[in-house]
């Protein structure tokens, strides 16, 4: 467990539905096997774009601040909020700048393009390689479990309510099979004109 | 190629010659994944039929789930040579059990015996995840699963091998209804446990394996499901993606 | 007297010289027991494929000493009994050890049985257990082998066994480099047992001979001289063709290769 990306633990997942996207994360922050906090959210909002950040907690915090800074500058220069596709490229280039001394993170981006109304999700590796996805994207210490759950539960064109149920079940059951993830969860359901955030009750072991 | 290199200091009295430069590795990973589920009056044990070393597919059909008699199913997934050796030893001892006692081996006894086979090699372990399935003394479905050195437990379901981490949470959710609530209780009561029917179990197993095939490179080619009921053992085969 | 904490009470090195630890060591050799080896003289790939009436098997005649093409007349297809061929790649001295082990097995079989009874399924079982027992003693026989033949029920047997005791069966098998270069070519024709049942003997021989040519082109530890065995179910017979050559090769491309070896002017 000298892998920096799995010291603190944590997972996140994003899914595409019909005219909606969802992004969710667990709330645990740990020091190896010791749980330290149960309110460490890993999904951050920049305008109408959402970023899930798992991995080394210090890098999660640093990158959140970095992207807050960069998206604020973007908004001042462009006089509009950044779109998900653009933000994905910002994440990618920012991570690649540190190609030979990377941030130990697993990011995912989710959002709906405000011009085209197209749902968008993608994930990255720690040095910024973008993995575009039409269905779901997973990152974090429970990524294997999340892949299994999502492959099993996901179907295309789900309504916002059904998408909430699907992503929640995927995250909850994946987290219960990962010692480093869990201790609660937060789920965002994003449609063109509404964003809902819900906390989930989950196993506390 | 120097055979001796001195690792010594004033306070080191040990043998200072270090001849180890290349060590033979007696283990390899032959991929694949397996899955056992117990029903009310049946049990199934399923495995994919792909056999690999590294990135090479050695065979697209090499069965690894076996019916060994006495309505017992067994699989030992991981390092195939150890898996085969374990199953062979079990079969052989089962034959002797029949000679000596003139009766069938119960799954409970089979499980305890396998613990001894595995623990007997505690310091040079069989590199396998072992699962057995069958019917217990009351005719109820039973699945026992083992770690490489013989710790074991009776369970309702268990996934083993390369894609166990992908399949196991799916099984928790769909077989044991983990994290599911009773829709009428407004989130106050858990969904009640019930035994799944055989056709429901088969379709779950097929879903689990096609999901694992999609995301795990060592899983694919074919799915072989062995089903044990009071009427005996039956085998079903379904193709999986070959890529 | 030596006053260092680990050597306290021992004769002083200044007076008597350094203490020879081997004197008291239980293991009186210079090293701990060593039986782990590395292959020395090696044979490269063996390839085999099933067809509608049997199996075609091939292996070249080279024994390599590292990158040196040391021996050019090594026979790596061994007949065992009258219905089995064992193709062996890997260490050649271990190959010869296996040859002796299988010879003993045949002698024992001819003592025990009234007529030859040693079939490929028995040879494969025996060989794979020899491999597994040797690996369990951490003293492996450094080989990958293919066992092919006609079983006691006159059915085709085509199985693999290697130094770890790993075994498997498939309608197309290749060891070593063949697993990477020949298997894709073999599987293009024979992916399943059903495909095999449609392949004629002539097609199978041509397929295997083409694979041997491709292996000679790209495997640097190969030679263009090889043996090819044809096992036939209907004829109940095995033919081993020795000293075959890779034919119809085109080496035009070779003179365009730049960057390695002596510069060509």
UniProtKB/TrEMBL annotation, chain A:
The keyword Coiled coil does not apply. It is found in: Cytoplasm; Nucleus. It holds the Pfam family Proteasome. InterPro entries: Ntn_hydrolases_N, Proteasome_beta_3, Proteasome_bsu_CS, Proteasome_sua/b, Proteasome_suB-type. Keywords: Cytoplasm, Nucleus, Proteasome. The keyword Cytoplasm applies. SUPFAM superfamilies: N-terminal nucleophile aminohydrolases (Ntn hydrolases). One of its GO terms (cellular component) is proteasome core complex, beta-subunit complex. GO terms for molecular function: endopeptidase activator activity. PROSITE patterns: PROTEASOME_BETA_1 (PS00854), PROTEASOME_BETA_2 (PS51476). GO terms for biological process: proteasomal ubiquitin-independent protein catabolic process; proteasome-mediated ubiquitin-dependent protein catabolic process. Component of the proteasome, a multicatalytic proteinase complex which is characterized by its ability to cleave peptides with Arg, Phe, Tyr, Leu, and Glu adjacent to the leaving group at neutral or slightly basic pH. The proteasome has an ATP-dependent proteolytic activity. PANTHER family: METALLOPROTEASE TLDD, PROTEASOME SUBUNIT BETA TYPE-3. The 26S proteasome consists of a 20S proteasome core and two 19S regulatory subunits. The 20S proteasome core is composed of 28 subunits that are arranged in four stacked rings, resulting in a barrel-shaped structure. The two end rings are each formed by seven alpha subunits, and the two central rings are each formed by seven beta subunits. The catalytic chamber with the active sites is on the inside of the barrel. Component of the proteasome complex. Belongs to the peptidase T1B family. This is Proteasome subunit beta. It comes from Komagataella phaffii (strain GS115 / ATCC 20864).
TrEMBL record, chain B:
Transmembrane segments: none annotated. GO terms for biological process: proteasomal ubiquitin-independent protein catabolic process; proteasome-mediated ubiquitin-dependent protein catabolic process. Pfam families: Proteasome (PF00227). It is found in: Cytoplasm; Nucleus. The keyword Cytoplasm applies. GO terms for cellular component: cytoplasm; nucleus; proteasome core complex, beta-subunit complex. Keywords: Cytoplasm, Nucleus, Proteasome. The keyword Cell division does not apply. InterPro entries: Ntn_hydrolases_N, Proteasome_bsu_CS, Proteasome_sua/b, Proteasome_suB-type. Belongs to the peptidase T1B family. Component of the proteasome complex. The 26S proteasome consists of a 20S proteasome core and two 19S regulatory subunits. The 20S proteasome core is composed of 28 subunits that are arranged in four stacked rings, resulting in a barrel-shaped structure. The two end rings are each formed by seven alpha subunits, and the two central rings are each formed by seven beta subunits. The catalytic chamber with the active sites is on the inside of the barrel. Component of the proteasome, a multicatalytic proteinase complex which is characterized by its ability to cleave peptides with Arg, Phe, Tyr, Leu, and Glu adjacent to the leaving group at neutral or slightly basic pH. The proteasome has an ATP-dependent proteolytic activity. This is Proteasome subunit beta.
Automatic annotation (TrEMBL), chain C:
It holds the Pfam family Proteasome. Keywords: Cytoplasm, Nucleus, Proteasome. Its main location: cytoplasm. It is found in: Cytoplasm; Nucleus. GO terms for cellular component: nucleus; proteasome core complex, beta-subunit complex; proteasome storage granule. The keyword Nucleus applies. Transmembrane segments: none annotated. The keyword Cytoplasm applies. Coiled coil: none annotated. Gene3D superfamilies: Glutamine Phosphoribosylpyrophosphate, subunit 1, domain 1. PROSITE patterns: PROTEASOME_BETA_1, PROTEASOME_BETA_2. InterPro entries: Ntn_hydrolases_N, Proteasome_beta4, Proteasome_bsu_CS, Proteasome_sua/b, Proteasome_suB-type. GO terms for biological process: proteasomal ubiquitin-independent protein catabolic process; proteasome assembly; proteasome-mediated ubiquitin-dependent protein catabolic process. Non-catalytic component of the proteasome. Belongs to the peptidase T1B family. This is Proteasome subunit beta.
């Amino acid at each position: 467990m000298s892998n920096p990306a799995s010291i603190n633990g944590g997972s996140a997942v994003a899914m595409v539905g019909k005219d909606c996207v969802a992004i969710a994360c667990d709330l645990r922050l740990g020091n190896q096997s010791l749980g330290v906090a149960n309110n460490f959210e890993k999904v951050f909002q920049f305008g109408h774009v959402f970023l899930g950040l798992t991995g080394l907690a210090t890098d999660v915090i640093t990158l959140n601040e970095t992207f807050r800074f960069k998206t604020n500058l973007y908004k001042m220069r462009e006089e509009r909020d950044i779109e998900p596709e653009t933000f994905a490229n910002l994440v990618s280039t920012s991570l690649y700048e540190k190609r030979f001394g990377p941030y130990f993170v697993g990011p995912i981006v989710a959002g709906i393009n405000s011009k085209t109304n197209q749902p968008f999700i993608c994930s990255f590796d720690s040095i910024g390689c973008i993995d575009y996805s039409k269905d779901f994207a997973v990152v974090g210490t429970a990524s294997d479990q999340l892949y299994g759950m999502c492959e099993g539960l996901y179907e295309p064109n789900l309504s916002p309510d059904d998408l909430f149920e699907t992503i929640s079940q995927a995250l909850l059951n994946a987290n219960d099979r990962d010692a480093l993830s869990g201790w609660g969860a937060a789920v965002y359901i994003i449609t063109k004109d509404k964003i809902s955030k819900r906390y989930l009750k989950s196993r506390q072991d | 190629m120097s055979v001796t290199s001195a690792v010594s200091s004033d306070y080191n009295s040990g043998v200072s010659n270090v001849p180890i430069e290349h060590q033979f590795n007696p283990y390899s990973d032959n991929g694949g994944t397996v899955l056992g589920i117990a029903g009310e009056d049946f049990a199934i044990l399923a495995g994919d039929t792909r056999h690999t070393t590294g990135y090479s597919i050695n065979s697209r059909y090499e069965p690894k789930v076996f019916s060994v008699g006495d309505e017992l199913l067994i699989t030992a997934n991981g390092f195939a040579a150890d898996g085969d050796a374990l199953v062979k030893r079990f079969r052989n001892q089962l034959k002797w059990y029949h000679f000596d006692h003139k009766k069938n081996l119960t799954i409970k006894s089979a499980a305890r015996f396998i613990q001894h086979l595995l623990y007997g090699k505690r310091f040079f372990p069989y590199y396998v995840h072992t699962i057995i399935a069958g019917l217990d003394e009351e005719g109820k479905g039973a699945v026992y699963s083992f770690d490489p050195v013989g710790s074991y437990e009776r369970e309702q379901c268990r996934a083993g091998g390369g894609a166990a981490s992908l399949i196991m949470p799916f099984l928790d959710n769909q077989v044991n209804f983990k994290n599911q609530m009773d829709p009428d209780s407004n989130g106050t009561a858990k969904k009640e446990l019930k035994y799944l029917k055989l056709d429901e179990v088969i379709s779950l197993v097929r879903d689990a394996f096609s999901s694992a095939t999609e995301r795990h490179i060592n899983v694919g080619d074919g799915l072989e499901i062995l089903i044990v009921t009071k009427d005996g053992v039956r085998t079903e085969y379904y193709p999986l993606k070959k890529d | 007297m030596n006053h260092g904490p680990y050597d306290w009470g021992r004769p002083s090195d200044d007076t008597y010289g350094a203490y020879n630890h081997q004197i008291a060591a239980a293991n009186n050799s210079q090293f701990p027991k060593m039986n782990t080896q590395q292959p020395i003289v090696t044979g490269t790939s063996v390839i085999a494929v099933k067809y509608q009436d049997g199996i075609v098997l091939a292996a070249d005649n080279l024994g390599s000493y590292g990158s040196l093409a040391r021996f050019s007349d090594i026979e790596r297809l061994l007949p065992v009994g009258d219905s089995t061929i064992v193709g062996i790649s890997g260490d050649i001295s271990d190959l010869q050890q296996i040859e002796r082990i299988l010879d003993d097995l045949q002698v024992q079989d001819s003592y025990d049985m009234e007529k030859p009874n040693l079939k490929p399924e028995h040879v494969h079982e025996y060989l794979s257990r020899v491999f597994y027992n040797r690996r369990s003693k951490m003293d492996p026989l450094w080989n990958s082998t293919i066992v092919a033949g006609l079983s006691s029920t006159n059915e085709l047997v085509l199985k693999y066994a290697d130094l770890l005791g790993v075994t498997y069966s498939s309608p197309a098998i290749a060891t070593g480099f063949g697993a990477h270069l020949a298997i894709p070519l073999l599987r293009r024709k024979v992916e399943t047992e059903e495909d095999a049942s449609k392949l004629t003997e002539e097609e199978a021989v041509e397929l295997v001979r083409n694979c041997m040519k491709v292996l000679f082109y790209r495997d640097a530890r190969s030679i263009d001289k090889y043996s090819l065995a044809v096992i036939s179910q209907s004829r109940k017979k095995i033919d081993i063709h020795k000293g075959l050559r890779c034919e119809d090769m085109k080496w035009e491309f070779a003179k365009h290769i730049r960057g390695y070896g002596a510069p060509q002017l």
